[in-house]
Amino acid sequence: MSVAPNFGRCSRLIELKKVNRFMQVKRIRSKTCDRCKQEHDTLFRIRATQNGDWMFVCKGCIKDVKPNNVHYQYGGTWKSKKRH
């Protein structure tokens, strides 16, 4: 008598492991906005001055800096929750 393996259960376990791996948040950090000096979970790296120095600003401050600024350059998004 031969017993067929239960591939359905095995594949569900593999899928659950994949989902759990991507949902885990390993580090939670905070950083302050360079303009308003308040801590935020998400900041945007930008250049907005003639000297070209990078700074991190929050969503509220970027709305003040970005319009009609010839020196504005987006450099990425920083998030407090890291998966690795």
What can you see in these coordinates?
The protein has 84 residues and is an alpha+beta fold. The chain has a domain at 26-82: Wheat Germ Agglutinin (Isolectin 2), domain 1, CATH 3.30.60. 29% of the residues lie in helices and 30% in strands. It contains two helices and seven strands, in the order αβββββαββ. The protein has helices at 7-23, 59-65, and strands at 27-28, 31-32, 39-40, 42-47, 54-57, 73-79, 81-82. A three-stranded antiparallel beta sheet has the order 5-4-6. Strands 1-7 form a two-stranded antiparallel sheet.
Topology (SSEs and partners):
Blueprint (H helix, E strand, L loop, with lengths): L6 H17 L3 E2 L2 E2 L6 E2 L1 E6 L6 E4 L1 H7 L7 E7 L1 E2 L2
Antiparallel strand pairs: 1-7, 2-3, 4-5, 4-6
What value does the Rg take, in angstroms? 22 Å
Strand order of the largest sheet: 5-4-6
Largest sheet: 3 strands, antiparallel
Q: In the CATH hierarchy, what is the architecture of the domain at 26-82 at level 2?
A: 2-Layer Sandwich
Poorly predicted runs: none
Secondary-structure content class: alpha+beta
* Portion in strands: 25-35%
Measure the end-to-end span: 47 Å
**CATH fold name of the domain at 26-82:** Wheat Germ Agglutinin (Isolectin 2), domain 1
Helix fraction bin: 25-40%
Number of helices: 2
Strand-and-helix sequence, N→C?
A: HEEEEEHEE
- Mean pLDDT score: 80
- Total beta-strand segments: 7
